[in-house]
Amino acid sequence: MKIIIINGPNLNLLGKREPEVYGDTTFDDYFSKLQFKFKEVQLEYFQSNVEGELIGKLQEAGFSHDGIVLNAAAYTHTSVGIGDAVKAIETPVVEVHISNTFSREDFRHISYISPAAKGVILGFGLQSYDLAIQSFLE
Ligand code: DQA
After folding, report:
1. Tens digit of pLDDT for each residue in 123-137?
2. 36, 37, 108, 129: which sits with the fewest CB atoms below 10 Å from its CB?
3. Does any ligand 1 atom lie closer than 6 A to the CB of residue 74?
């Protein structure tokens, strides 16, 4: 089972960025825990602050991997291009968010990804990623 986590803009700053919203753990530390927990999964991680790079990675993984866990961060609410990429690929995508976007500003209630996603997991902190990986295993 080959699964890739794709993180969008500003998620490279996890641990430092608005810790009251996103927690104080870096994604690298969390990713090591995920690798330890899901030893049977070939787990990869990609992060970019650039919309086109995220689309490129979705296209690449979208025909070779068994699952994609996507947190497109702010692009979730703006990017028709990322939404179209999710529609275009074969690999199922689970959309995740660390925070509960529905308890935040109105602009975060819109997602260009959800209509094409297999499912959406949000509001569980970093555990949202864990739950998304589990969803591919069950
Ligand atoms: C986020 C929620 C988005 O609204 C925000 O722009 C992010 C992170 C989350 O994981 O909670 O950067 O996707």
Report:
1. 999 999 999 999 999
2. 36
3. yes
The number of distinct structural domains making up the chain is 1
CATH of the domain at 45: 3.40.50.9100
Protein residue whose Cα sits closest to atom 2 of ligand 1: 73
Nearest atom (ligand 1) to Cα of 99:
11
- Segments forming the whole domain that contains residue 35: 2-137
Please give the pLDDT value at position 138.
81
Distance from C-alpha of 80 to C-alpha of 84, rounded to nearest angstrom: 6
Residue appearing with tokens 């979208």: 62
97 lines ligand 1 (CB under 6 A): yes
* pTM, rounded to two decimals: 0.97
